[in-house]
Write a structure and sequence with these properties.
It is found in: Cell outer membrane. It comes from Sphingobium indicum (strain DSM 16413 / CCM 7287 / MTCC 6362 / UT26 / NBRC 101211 / UT26S). By secondary structure, the protein is mainly β. The chain has a single domain, classed as Maltoporin, Chain A, CATH 2.40.170. It has 4 helices and 48 strands. The relative contact order is 0.14.
Length: about 800
């Protein structure tokens, strides 16, 4: 980064600091005598009583610091959305939280996967879009306290959810590795001592038929159970086309559309309150999906060059000549289109570099092989949480979890030329055990937490793939064992000021046993298999590899409550994302390439306010982060078609986030929030295909959302609630190279609904529309312009109406 660029960084962040200082100065003018009591208890009780009396904004309880406390008393940038709010928004899975949470991107399909349930989650520019198990995610997803380690199967359905919390910024102390960007905590509804239940049915566009049911049963005065079951069904929205290579005629294939939904999900939970001091929660969840591949659309290919037989499986629709023993793309008469000859960059502005022969321009149609379209998932998990209040000041908590995921998905960007044929089978099993010891001392001035954590995982992964130039089998066995010890404590310096400090030590070992080899497609081994160092010339790599991680992640924060309604804080924290293995190895070698962990250091200031008698809530956070050892993709200079994952750069991230809720009178609620993110690579590896002015992927500079809800009493009949939600995202790139072909320009999404709740609150009817303006926008994408020379993307679902009826008892 140039000196001018560095100098340009400072004024912007200084402005953020000045705004924070101004807000703190404003806060300090509030009457200090309005509240007396400890920071831990006084303001929560006082503010809750005040807002209840005045009809203000309801309090929200979060567990961002592994203990229950008010959102407004938590010195962490955290957003909380209830399951009821998600239902009001028409959400069917947890990815919908991204429409209301600043700095969050949450998509359901990883580019180039074909899977409909591979989570792509980014917070403040940090995450992971690769579904391979040898690469860790950058945002941790937790279900009832259990870490969900793999992206496949992480897109959980909104069945009997209590709340979703999104913690922004590194959470390395309390949540461990792979929360370098943040964490998403999902809490399900727990059994209670009340007999109740509900049944809901929904219909809508694309032959939607959803049925959900839940029941809560108090078996005895101390044993309760809760059970839920849902079936979610919707047709796909991307039509598969066929093009006759002889006549050129395009017809619709007689096959199901891509991007459908076909899910069965169930959950059972028991709660045993053995004594007032001891409580045990046991739960089991199961999900089964049998769907077509994700709604992938072919966006671009290189132009067809005369002289290559149509349908030749060894070549893409560009001339592939053997030059120097390697396949090299040569496009006749198209200057600047060949990235490998002479080292020229691929000129995406040159229209002759692409061919629209198989690109329809319609985001909801694609050329695909229906026989290779599947996205299946079987997932089940067991969770046990035991809590024992040893004394009024000491508690012990045990969190035990086991999860098993089986995924099978396929994809084929099919034209008369082979672009990519992919099949994936993955079985993942994980076990985790966490012990927490917590309490208070020094007359409750010191609140402390000490924890121990163990995690083990076994993944079996099989990913045969055929490109235009080679077919490979990519297999691996991945075993992980991780141990951690952590502690965090909050000390009340005075009744208004708290100092929090924490530390986590992690010791982890990953072992990977790869088995990559060439698949003979009738043309023999590829030229680059000559002089193979392995005894078998068809072997790419089969020697085990190992990576280790030893890390200490600290955090420190200071918060001060200026009045019962205003709190400010400043924090320093670090996080780490584990290293891994390069599994997409095409060039034969004896040792598997590995890469080390990413590290993030974050500085943050923020304020949380409840103003005007709790009718206005305004929270703001400004941050600066140094991002080191980024796991980015580079290309081997001796074999440029092989992408390698390496620690190839550093970046700087700065931004500001705002969330506000306004409730001027009973029945009307308005929300407005957003984020501004400024990201920049400060160092890039020499061979990385990243331009110097690139920004981090899946990170729009501007994200803004707003909502308006009005509940109107219809005499004695009930309540009619009208709701509208709006979300805006500025231009977003979907890879580190910032390829324009798979970027999404700024766009708006609008959802609306009307719900009628009867006076006795037994019946609720909802009519709604999602994506009201029918905006076609990309949620993820993949571009391989150097090698296979194609680009594709997954568009979000188009406009959909829905009508649901819910009966509760």
């Amino acid at each position: 980064m140039s000196g001018a660029s560095k100098r340009a960084c400072r004024p912007h962040f200084s402005a953020l600091l000045m705004r924070g200082a101004f807000l703190g100065a404003f806060a300090s003018t509030a009457p200090a005598h309005a509240w007396q009591g400890s920071a831990a208890a006084g303001p929560e009780q006082a503010s809750q009583a005040a807002r209840t009396a005045s009809g203000g904004i309801a309090d929200i309880v979060v567990t961002a610091r592994r203990r229950s406390e008010s959102l407004q008393n938590t010195p962490v940038a955290v957003s909380a959305i209830t399951g009821a709010t998600l239902a009001d928004r028409g959400a069917t899975d947890i990815s919908a939280v991204a429409q209301a949470v600043p700095s969050l991107t949450f998509n359901t399909t990883a580019g180039n996967s074909g899977a409909s349930n591979a989570a792509v989650v980014f917070i403040r520019g940090i995450g992971q879009d690769d579904f391979f198990p040898t690469i860790d995610p950058g945002v941790g997803i937790y279900l009832d306290g259990i870490y969900v380690s793999r992206t496949l199967g992480s897109v959980l359905d909104t069945v009997d959810l209590e709340q979703v919390e999104v913690l922004r910024g590194p959470q390395g102390t309390l949540f461990g590795k792979n929360t370098i960007g943040g964490a998403v905590q999902i809490t399900t509804r727990k059994p209670s001592d009340k007999f109740e239940g509900s049944l809901e049915a929904t219909t809508g566009r694309f032959d939607r038929i959803d049925v959900k049911g839940s029941i809560n049963i108090p078996f005895t005065s101390s044993l309760f159970g809760r059970f839920s079951l849902a079936t979610l069904n919707r047709d796909g929205y991307v039509t598969i086309l066929r093009k006759d290579p002889g006549t050129g005629a395009v017809t619709e294939a007689d096959a199901p559309k891509l991007g459908d939904i076909s899910t069965i999900a169930g959950r059972g939970a028991l709660r045993w309150e053995a004594t007032p001091e001891f409580k045990l929660d046991l739960s089991f969840d199961y999900t089964r999906k049998r769907e077509q591949s994700s709604g992938t659309t072919l966006l671009a290919t290189q132009p067809l060059v005369p002289g290559i037989p149509v349908g030749d499986p060894n070549f893409i629709n560009a001339n592939a000549a053997t030059i120097g023993g390697f396949y090299n793309l040569v496009v006749a008469g198209a200057q600047g289109c060949n990235p490998l000859a002479g080292g020229d960059a691929f000129d995406q502005s040159n229209p002759s570099c692409f061919n629209d022969q198989y690109v329809t321009g319609n985001p909801y149609t694609t050329f695909y092989d229906p026989a290779r379209s599947r996205s299946d998932l079987d997932l089940w998990g067991l969770t046990g949480v035991a809590e024992w209040n040893v004394s009024p000041d000491v508690s012990v908590k045990s969190i035990t979890g086991y999860r098993r995921t089986e995924s099978h998905f396929m994809r084929d960007d099919d034209t008369p030329f082979r672009l990519l044929e992919l099949q994936t089978d993955q079985t993942a099993r994980q076990f985790s055990q966490e012990l927490q010891f917590s309490g208070k001392t020094m007359d409750s001035r010191l609140t402390w937490l000490i924890g121990l954590y163990y995690f083990s995982e076994k993944v079996r992964f099989d990913n045969p793939a055929c490109f235009s130039f080679v077919c490979t089998a990519v297999k691996t066995k991945l075993d992980t064992h991780s141990y951690a010890a952590f502690s965090q404590a909050t000390f009340a310096i005075d009744p208004r000021t708290n100092l929090t400090a924490g530390l986590r030590y992690t010791n982890e070992t990953k072992r990977n046993d790869p088995d990559n080899f060439y698949i003979d497609n009738g043309f023999g081994l590829p030229p680059f298999a000559v002089n193979n160092p392995n005894p078998d010339p068809a072997t790419i790599i089969d020697n085990p590899a190992k990576v280790k991680l030893k890390n200490v992640s600290p955090m420190v924060s200071l918060d001060h409550r200026w009045s019962p309604s205003i709190m400010t804080y400043a924090s320093f924290s670090q996080g780490i994302k584990g290293g891994g293995f390069q599994q997409r190895v095409i060039l034969p070698r004896l040792q598997q390439p590995t890469f080390g962990p990413e590290k993030l250091t974050s500085y943050e200031i923020g304020a949380k306010t409840d103003l005007f008698d709790h009718h206005v809530r305004f929270n703001i956070a400004a941050f600066w982060a140094d991002y080191k050892n980024l796991q980015i993709t580079v290309f081997d200079p001796n074999f440029s078609i092989e992408p390698l994952q390496v620690n190839g750069g550093t970046a700087r991230i700065r931004g500001i986030e705002v969330e506000s809720t306004i409730k001027p009178f009973e029945g009307l609620t308005a929300t407005l929030g957003g984020s501004y993110l400024d990201t920049e690579y400060t160092r890039i590896a020499p061979n990385a295909a990243i331009p110097p002015d690139a920004v981090l992927p899946y990170t729009p500079k501007w994200s803004i959302s707003g909502g308006l809800s009005y509940a109107y009493e219809l005499a004695d009949a009930g309540t009619l609630t009208l709701r509208g939600d709006w979300n805006y995202r500025s231009r977003t790139f979907f890879n580190a190279a910032n390829d324009p072909i798979i970027s999404q320009p700024g766009y708006h999404v609008v959802n609306m609904s009307a719900a009628f709740l009867t006076r006795d609150e037994h019946w609720r009817l909802t009519l709604g529309v999602t994506n009201l303006t029918d905006k076609a926008y990309l949620g993820s994408g993949f571009a391989d312009l150097r090698n296979s020379s194609f680009a594709d993307g997954v568009y979000a679902r188009p406009r959909e109406w829905y009508l649901s009826a819910r009966y509760a008892f």
